[in-house]
């Protein structure tokens, strides 16, 4: 085997070994994510069982939530600067009451700290999984390209060897049948040109919904949005009075693992355990909470900073599902 083929073979072996390692790591990370999700769910259930049902701090927190809901309704009905200021003030007081309420329960604080650690690890593991998942198809493509180069090189060498044997036979025949003369110069047959690599058509397929977390889907096209809204109407049906209690959407934005911003939004009850809110999410890590249900998402840059519609299906109280999409896609 020629030195060139030896080098190509070594490169191929290295790439195949790297691919096998990444595929094993991908499975490990998926298992880690499942385990972390189960830990987070268990902690949420423990917090729900730990939260006191009464007490002065709980009463003050419930009162602050009601005031925030009232201010939200006023701002939605009449979005004046005065009502916006009242809404922001009510939101601040609600966060303050929540902090006092939770700080009064040491067991609840402990569970929340544990859940913050789990969520931070979940974000880290998911980011590594995303990197591995992107790298695997790239590596497969490189391996296929390397194999094609090896085949082309082997074919070129085979043609060159066959041509050399043919020339040797011709030279021998000429020497036996004619006076010795200098052989005419010959030109090597050029190797066929290799086609340029083109993008896989499948890679250019239309963008589908983005699963940012389990039971948290970001829609990316107007067609997806219209389908989701039609399905929402089917779920609501005619029983719009079954469940109309309001819920609060809490969003915490993190930068480099540290909380950089926090805001809350009121869910409107649409009926039959369906809810709707509007929110603006920042790019990167966002931790979303509704009561004791949590989602940890990486908001893509192209959808960050714009008004999003957040639809929540809470028909399964233990596993509510969220669909989000840019409000501009609704009309």
TrEMBL record:
Positions in coiled-coil regions: 12-46
Biased composition annotated in UniProt, kind: Basic and acidic residues: 150-162
Polar residues: compositionally biased ranges: 196-207
Compositionally biased residues, Low complexity: 163-195
Recorded superkingdom: Bacteria
Keywords of this entry: Coiled coil
Region (Disordered): 150-209
Annotated protein name in UniProt: Putative nucleic acid-binding Zn-ribbon protein
